[in-house]
C-alpha cells in the first residue's frame, strides 16, 4: 500500500485515526506492517501490501 | 438456520470461506464491468471513489479512469488479492474509511450477501457516512424477478427472502447465502437507512442511486 492511503483509512470500529508502522517497504510502498488504533488498543495487519481492517469480531 | 437466527456471524464466516475458495474461478468469468455501473460512472469525475464489496476488482479500472483515487474493499482475502491496489480487506457494516471522504461509492451485487437486515442496514448507513455532501452511491441487489429464481420464488418468499445458491465448478460444489429482495423490501431497507433516492430494476437486479439524507 502507498502511505497516502492513510488519508482515507480509519479504525473500522471507532473511526479514529490509525497509526502506521511499516516493517517492510519496497519502492516506497508498505508491504508488511501494522495499523494501530490507540483508542481501541487494537492492531491490524498490513499483509502483502493489503491492510486487513476486518473488525476483530469478524475475523 | 437463517442468517437472522444466528445473528449472521456463522453465515458470514461460511460465505467468506466460500468466496476465498472460489476466487480464482470467479475471476475467470467475472472480469467485465456491468453496463448499469458504466452508465452510472459515465461523465462523473472527482477525487475519491470507493468500491464497497469490490470482489476481484472488476469495476476499479472504470473508476480509476475518472477519479484520482479509487479504493476497493472486500471481506474475502483471496478476492482482494486478485484486484489491482489500492485495496483493503474489511467489512461493509464497519467500513474503515473516514467520514465524508468519498465523491462516489459503488455497492454492486453485494448487499444481498449480508445475512441479517440489521447488517444490510448498517452497511447502507456506512455508505451514507463515508459519502461527502455532494457524493452519491449506486447500490444493487438481485431481484426476486430474476429468471434464475423461476420455480423457487415461492420457496424464497416462504423463507422470508433467505436463499442459498449453489456454485458448481467441476467436482466442487459450494453454496452462497443470498437475501433475495422484492421491490418493496429493498425500498423499505433504503427508507430505513440514512440514504435517500430512487429505485429501479434492470436485468434482474434492483438498483438505487442514493445520497445521504438531510
Automatic annotation (TrEMBL), chain A:
Coiled coil: none annotated. InterPro entries: Trm112-like. PANTHER family: PROTEIN PREY, MITOCHONDRIAL (PTHR33505:SF4), ZGC:162634 (PTHR33505). This is Methytransferase partner Trm112. It comes from Halorutilus salinus. The lineage of its organism: Archaea, Methanobacteriati, Methanobacteriota, Stenosarchaea group, Halobacteria.
UniProtKB/TrEMBL annotation, chain B:
GO terms for biological process: methylation; tRNA modification. Pfam families: Methyltransf_11. It comes from Halorutilus salinus. Residues 50-137 form the Methyltransferase type domain. SUPFAM superfamilies: S-adenosyl-L-methionine-dependent methyltransferases. GO terms for molecular function: S-adenosylmethionine-dependent methyltransferase activity; tRNA methyltransferase activity. This is Class I SAM-dependent methyltransferase. Keywords: Methyltransferase, Transferase. Gene3D superfamilies: Vaccinia Virus protein VP39.
Amino acid at each position: 500500500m502507498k502511505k497516502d492511503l492513510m488519508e482515507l483509512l480509519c479504525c473500522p470500529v471507532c473511526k479514529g485515526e490509525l497509526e502506521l508502522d511499516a516493517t517492510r517497504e519496497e519502492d516506497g510502498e508498505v508491504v508488511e506492517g501494522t495499523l494501530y488504533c490507540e483508542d481501541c488498543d487494537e492492531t491490524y495487519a498490513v499483509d502483502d501490501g493489503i491492510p486487513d481492517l476486518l473488525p476483530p469480531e469478524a475475523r | 438456520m437463517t442468517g437472522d437466527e444466528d445473528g449472521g456471524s456463522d453465515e458470514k464466516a461460511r460465505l467468506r470461506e466460500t468466496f476465498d475458495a472460489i476466487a480464482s474461478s470467479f475471476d475467470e468469468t467475472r472480469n467485465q464491468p456491468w453496463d448499469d455501473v458504466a452508465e452510472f460512472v459515465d461523465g462523473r469525475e472527482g477525487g475519491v471513489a470507493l468500491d464497497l464489496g469490490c470482489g476481484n476488482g472488476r469495476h476499479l479500472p472504470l473508476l480509476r479512469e475518472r477519479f484520482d483515487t479509487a479504493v476497493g474493499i472486500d471481506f474475502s482475502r483471496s478476492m482482494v488479492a486478485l484486484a489491482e491496489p489500492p485495496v483493503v480487506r474489511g467489512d461493509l457494516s464497519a467500513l474503515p474509511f473516514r467520514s465524508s471522504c468519498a465523491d462516489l461509492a459503488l455497492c454492486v451485487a453485494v448487499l444481498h450477501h449480508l445475512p441479517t437486515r440489521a447488517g444490510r442496514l448498517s452497511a447502507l448507513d456506512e455508505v451514507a457516512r463515508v459519502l461527502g455532501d455532494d457524493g452519491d452511491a449506486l447500490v444493487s441487489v438481485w431481484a426476486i424477478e430474476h429468471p434464475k429464481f423461476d420455480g423457487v420464488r415461492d420457496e424464497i418468499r416462504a423463507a422470508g427472502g433467505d436463499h442459498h445458491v449453489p456454485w458448481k465448478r467441476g467436482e466442487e460444489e459450494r453454496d452462497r447465502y443470498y437475501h433475495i429482495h422484492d421491490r418493496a423490501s429493498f425500498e423499505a431497507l433504503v427508507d430505513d437507512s440514512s440514504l435517500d433516492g430512487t429505485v429501479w430494476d434492470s436485468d434482474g437486479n434492483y438498483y438505487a442511486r442514493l445520497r445521504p439524507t438531510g
